[in-house]
Design a protein that fits this description.
By secondary structure, the protein is an alpha+beta fold. The chain folds into two domains: about 5-125, Alpha-Beta Plaits, CATH 3.30.70; about 130-244, Beta Barrel (OB fold (Dihydrolipoamide Acetyltransferase, E2P)), CATH 2.40.50. The protein is built from five helices and twelve strands. The protein has helices at about 25-40, 65-80, 90-100, 170-175, 215-220, and strands spanning about 5-10, 45-50, 55-60, 105-110, 120, 130-140, 140-145, 155-160, 165, 185-195, 200-210, 240-244. The strands form two sheets. It has a seven-stranded mixed beta sheet, with no helix packed on it. The chain has a five-stranded antiparallel beta sheet with strand order 2-3-1-4-5, with helices on one face. Helix 1 (about 25-40) packs antiparallel against helix 3. It starts with a strand and ends with a strand.
């Protein structure tokens, strides 16, 4: 089924409308950066098909559930995290969004039922946000190792978690043999949003490789919808993720 979602852009005074909205020189870069941030990697089509009058509200249409889900998660990430904890594509979109919005303006991403996901003001898009730290243990499988540039701190992602875990050069070398192989117990220093306790990123303190039979134990404890890859028989021998 097609997914119809939108960006409601307005001001506290309700001054925006389809006739008094974004200039094309603003809408173009904004839509382009959003498209990159929510891309599903499958060349799926996502079109701007309408601008409605809830303010200035461009509507987008796609058949890709992944693009729609990415649209939701990108805006939640921008709302809950500082730009330093976003992916490169998310950070680029957030920075353009910040330039487009004026002081009293906001954006409300709307889901398929036209319900707001969150409300983001220009002043809320920051490099960092108020946060606190907590120490915890997490067990999982490394699904991604990489960094956006060779001069930046390397990070890992664990299957089923959506935040980056930053690691040292030495830890990178030690973890590389276990990329998408085996189960590891990690001791993390998590960075949490003061407002809602959401984990925005973490740093690896130590890790310990679990016995070989732990892989079965972890997967056996997951629900089918927690391992989407298993629904595709052609990929049954792989775990999702990529090495950058």
């Amino acid at each position: 089924m097609p997914f119809d979602f939108a960006l409601n852009i307005n001001s506290d005074a309700g001054a925006l409308s389809p006739d008094k909205g974004l200039d094309i020189k603003q809408l173009g870069p904004l839509a382009q950066s959003l498209g990159v941030a929510i891309d599903d990697g499958q060349n799926s089509l996502c079109t701007l098909h309408d601008i409605q009058n809830h303010g200035y509200t461009p509507h987008f249409l796609t058949e890709s559930e992944t693009i729609y889900n990415n649209f939701i998660s990108v805006h939640r990430n921008i709302y809950e995290r500082g730009t330093s904890d976003l992916s490169r594509a998310e950070r680029s979109y957030a920075n353009i969004l910040k330039r487009v919005l004026k002081r009293d303006q906001y954006v409300q991403p709307l889901d398929v039922e036209s319900k707001p996901i969150c409300k983001i003001y220009r002043t809320e898009i920051k490099t960092d946000i108020p946060h606190f730290h907590s120490i915890t243990n997490v067990t999982g499988i490394v699904s991604e190792i990489g960094g956006e540039r060779i001069d930046q701190t390397t990070h890992i992602l664990l299957h089923g978690l959506d935040y980056r875990i930053y690691i040292t050069v030495e830890q990178d070398e030690q973890l590389s043999p276990y990329y998408k192989k085996g189960v590891i117990e990690f001791k993390l220093k998590q960075k949490r949003n003061t407002k809602n306790g959401q984990v925005t990123s973490a740093r690896l303190i130590t890790f310990k490789v679990k016995p070989a039979n732990s892989l079965y134990d972890v997967l056996n404890g997951l629900q089918p919808d927690e391992i989407p890859l298993f629904n595709d028989p052609s990929n049954k021998d792989e775990f999702p993720g990529q090495r950058l």
